Amino acid sequence: MRCLAVLTVRNEGAFLLEWLAHHRACGFTDFLVFSNDCQDGTDRMLDRLEEMGELTHVRNDGPYDQGGIQFTAYKTADQMDIVQQADWIATLDVDEFVNIHAGDHTVPALLAALPEADAITLTWRLFGCGGVAQYVDAPVTQVFTRAAPAVMYWPWRSAMFKTLYRNDGTYGKLGVHRPRSPDPARVGQARWFDGEGRELDDKFRTQRIFSNYGRSNYALVQLNHYPLGAMESYVLKADRGRAVHSDHMLGVDYWVERNFVQEEDRSIAALAPQMSERLAAYKADTQLGALHDASVAWRKTRFDALMLQEPFRALFGRLLMTPPTRAVPLNEARFLVRYATRAREAGEQGEG
C-alpha cells in the first residue's frame, strides 16, 4: 500500500525533518513536497532528501494561477505519477501532524480499524503557544503539549479537518482540506468516516470542511495542529504570509482563535522513539545536518531583522500581552451560532 502525503513549504526548513520523521514513523510511504521562494535553504534540504530517496521535491516558484501558491502546486501534483499511483492521499502542512490512536499508531492500523472507509476526516486539535516566547531548535511535538479541549463549541474553524482518502478515481483533484472534482457516477457510493469511527452524512462527500463540533472527534485519529509555535516563530510566520491567502497579514486575531491550552495532550509521544531515531539519522547526514543548522540560524537572524520594524515589533509586543484563549462555553457559542445561522439563511434567501 502506498500512502502519499503532499506538502507545500516556504522558509520552514527548521521544522521539516521532524515532520518527515514523524510521518514516516506513522506509516506514510511517499512524500511529494513543493517549495516556493525559500531564503532559509528549505529547497536545498528537499533536494538532499530527494537524493537520499526520502521524497519527491518540486520547486513552485511561480508564476501562480488565480488560486494562489498552494492551488498552483496541487494543480501540478494532479498530473504527476506519484499522485496517480498512490492508494491513499492526504494534503498536509508542516505544522500538522497525523496522530493515530488506533493499534500501533500507524496508517495501516487506522485503515484496519475503518475497513469500509473511502475517506477519513483528520480533525484539527489546536495546540497553543503555552507562553513560549523564544524559538528553540527542539521537536515541536515535544515543546507544545497543551491544546484545545477535546469538545469545542466555537470557533467552527477549530473543527476543520484534512482528509485521508482512497485514491480510486472517485475524486479527480487534490484540495486543501478535502479532495475535489468528484466523479458524479461514483461519489454517491463514497463512505466517509470521522476520527471517532462514525459514518458521516452525504454533505461530507462534496461540501464539508469542518467536523461536527460540540463533541469529540479524536478517538481513532486526530490532526495535531501547531499553527502558532513560539512567539518568535509567529512573527516569522506573519512575515512569510499565508499559503492560501498570501496577501492577508497575520495578526492577533489569528492568534487568539488558535491559542488554546486548556488540556494537556501528549498522545503523539507514542511514536516519539521512532520519530527521534529517524530525526537523528537525518541530522547525521553531513549535508542535511548542516542545512538544518543553517535554517535554524536563519530564523534567528530574520527575527532580529524583523524586530527592527515597527509592525513586527508591535505584533510581538501584543503576543506578550495576550493571555491564552478562553474556550467559549456552550451557552455563549449557541448565542453566536444563532446569528451565524440567521446570516446564512438571509444570504440564501437573497440568492434565491
TrEMBL record:
InterPro entries cross-referenced by the UniProt entry: Nucleotide-diphossugar_trans
Domain of life: Bacteria
Name of the protein described by the UniProt record: Glycosyl transferase family 2
